[in-house]
Input
Amino acid sequence: AGAQPVACLRQPPGAPAGPAAAAFDAADILSEIARAPADVGIVTLAPELPAALDLVSRLVAAGHRVSLGHSGATFDEASAAVRAGASRATHLFNRMSPLGHREPGLVGAALHHDDLAVEIVCDGVHVHPAAVGLAVAAKGVSRVMAITDGTAGSALPPGSRATLGGRPITVREAAYLDDGTLAGSVLTMDRAFAFLTGPVGLGLVEAAQLCATTPARDLGLQGHGVIAPGEVADLVVLDRRLRVLETYVGGRRVFARETA
Output
């Protein structure tokens, strides 16, 4: 479960009843999704749960992208979800069954199946730079998305306090619950870009693809993730040290760093 409250975990519809005394159940979650389907781009689930494959098919048929994560699935269980329509893996390597040479687990399935795009938290804490490089080598830049998994503690100084789902977190090199559980990152995307071009060793163009182009294409966002005539001019200007100088949204400058 990671930093997710255990009391909020639910079984897919059709599975045996989960914990009693719940304020909502899986059917209610799906009802919420159905109220605004266009606003729900991605649904993450654990494919090893009873009735999960039927849920994957149902969500995909409704136009949602199903991602596999927070899961102890075997390679075969994850592969079955891919055949049912799952198309991505949530924060690869983190909170999922690891890669083994006899049981490849969910990590192995995500790296193996070309149909799956993968997210990676690029802060150097959640995933070692070498593992990021291995994932890029296995999947290619067109199937790997750099994410922050950022929290309310992102960019705050070490020792700062914030909350995640009503639970207190402390800012260190990442975000942590009071019991020491890793609870997301304190990353911003410019630092993710610097991590990819630094410790991971990618080129500027490759890093830009992971941070912008591949995520936009995976979500079907037209005009985003590219710099071309007629497209949406969401742009970030960086200096030689990869610090943000200017930010443009729809061609309009919304931020400019003061320089001496």
